Here is the input.
Amino acid sequence: MAARTTPITAVTPEWLEKGDNAWQLISATLVGMQSVPGLVILYGSIVKKKWAVNSAFMALYAFAAVLICWVSFAYKMSFGHQLLPFWGKAGPALDQKFLLRQAHLSATEYKFHNGTVETQMVQPFYPMATMVFFQFVFSAICLILIAGSLLGRMNIHAWMLFVPLWLTFSYTVGAFSLWGGGFLFQWGVLDYSGGYVIHLSSGVAGFTAAYWVGPRLTKDRERFPPNNVLLMLGGAGLLWMGWAGFNGGDPYAANIDASLAVLNTNICAAASLLVWTAFDTIFFGKPSVIGAVQGMITGLVCITPGAGLVQGWAAICMGILSGSIPWYTMMVVHKRSPFLQKVDDTLAVFHTHAVAGTLGGFLTGLFAQPTVTGMFSSVPGTHGAFYNHDIRGAMQVVKQLGGALFIISWNLVMTSIICWVISKIVPLRMPEEHLMIGDDAAHGEEAYALWGDGEKYDSSKHGLYNEAVEAGNRGSSRYNEPPVAV
Here is the structure.
């Protein structure tokens, strides 16, 4: 290795805190691993075999496409100078002078009529390059979560257009409004790590896009078994462990609030998983592995807006509620609602992210503890109603609900417009003949050289095969579908 010619001190500015920088880069990498490989594996495993490749690719494509858009213009729309009260000015984040200077979260300050500043700019002790990458992985996972509502039928070309459009016109608005110094942040709405910016927006956008794209084939909706439950658990595990970076990185420093956020995250996820599993056991007689994963996710989502703002006992309460309320909306309300039944939300992202994210934001308005909330928000009087029984406490709950209403409304309208525009360019949904085949039609590739769950079979390509014999060999009624002609 060549000898170093420049002293280390010459490239290490005085403001750089190496511990904070290392933790922030680790946190960003953990969040990135939630998407790649976490959700790539989870999506590719939880769907029917014929959709494994397409589902994994939708996640992989979104991760790459968002990064290029992010550094080209979207970062500054989310965290740059204000263009509108809910939107920043677009601009590239690629210049070396910009990337190597000390990071700041926002260029926005709000002043009272007497000239005093209400909110100070957050200025961590590491370079902008670290901040840009950290914020990128959040934007990427938001798009990938939307994909969960659309698996098994969206035209891949439509998805390739949807990703940059939705990032530009929807994600950046929520990010700037709540994190970049926009009007919701100035009002005092609390969203510690993305309960609204990531999860509520992806849940609403996914459900809205699913409405416009249309449903899967009837046979796929009726029978959509995971092609690999154990691999699905591996993806879910990466998602859970990666959440240490998701919530632990949002104090923007390796401080005591980061430790609190990580512990609260795991407490709430565990409690939610156990409650969801208990409900499945009580009402269906058996604990469901997929149900346990859904309970885990709702717990992680619910704690996200308040991870570093609440105490441990509140995290347990949030876990109990996140394991029960989304379970009820998914298992009871959804099945009784003709409208919800009509919209084909493949992985129930509406319930696991929109419902759980709104619940988490509301509970943060109740349980945000004044001392730790003061570390996060400089807006006076921003803490939970549980600690303040006068009008200010009630107003925090109102603010949380108002913030949720804005995110829901914006995403409902903007996602609909984006889908309508794309539909004028390419079809949103695959042709029926492609839906019958799956991955081979969409990509010319297949995940496994195994057969038996009803997809179209090309004997000239894959050799002779008798599905009825294979079903008998497996000894499972699950595979007893009409055999494909040999």
